[in-house]
Write a structure and sequence with these properties.
The chain is mostly beta strands and 313 residues long. The protein has one domain: monomeric porin ompg (Porin, Beta Barrel), CATH 2.40.160.40. The protein has one helix and 17 strands. The strands form two sheets. Strands 1-2-3-4-5-6-7-10-12-13-14-15-16-17 form a 14-stranded antiparallel barrel. A two-stranded antiparallel ribbon has the order 8-9. The protein is globular. The termini are far apart. The N terminus is likely disordered.
Length: 313
Amino acid sequence: MQNVYKKLLGISFTLGSLSLQAQQDPMYTHYMYNTLVVNPAYAGSRDALTVTALHRSQWVSFKGAPQTETMTFHTPLRNNKLAIGMYALNDRIGPINNTSVFGDFAYRLRINSKSRLAFGLSAGVRVTQARLSSLDLEQESDPAFTNNIVNKTNPNCGFGVYYSRERFYLGASVPYIFQNKFSDIKLNDGTVLAGQEQRHYFVIAGTVLNISNNLALKPTTLVKLTPAAPIEADLTAQLVYANKLSLGANYRTGDSFGALIGFNITPQLFLGYSYDWSYGLKTSRYNNGSHEIVLRYDFLPGEMKQIHSPRHF
């Protein structure tokens, strides 16, 4: 297992963080409840002050496995055309830790009585730490693991567009536009590898289809694109009973299957849990799957607290 762990770190840092490109951003099974992290135009879309907390423990029992936490809040402003938001994210794998804090701003256009189009901007910083010299390596002189990265701070910004109706949404975004450089590693043959963030492109979509008076089907998707890396898509379908209980399944291309359960404890408070298992990795034999929990609360304006129309997204 120790050899597998070393290979994992080598892939995640040398391939994921350097100029050899791969998916870098964290993954979420509850992406449909964590939309602000990938698209700033989502801000204010629930017409409430919405606070969401998420924790993900990936590859449980695997030493140094990814751990991710996010906290978001967003709200429309008084004129209802503008909205603001903010999120904090902490993501770590082995000796590598990334912490991000971003603010969001959205301008919302009412197309007609049933649909809205929003444009969003985000700006913030990402702080990277990597204690690579603390690793026990088979090849002690490996230059890719000899230089630590200590509190490397990079500013960044993002852009998104989000179209929504009561039962449908579609969005596209680039959360991090700048491809910041955070380290140089010189190999024994003189080659220099530049540690660099890679630009990610996201497409999100979802709808709600009524099956009966008390039962609805909610299919959603999140597609992630990064240059020189395979396209990755999350495909999720949830059955929603009486706007209270939701049960669903998730498939992440080339990676995992998952199951979700959620409950609207009150019209304002939602609690969700998911479990997924990575079938496509050699590491799957060494871990007990991934767990994720999400908690969301809507602080509704006083005049809206008696409105019982569900907020599907």
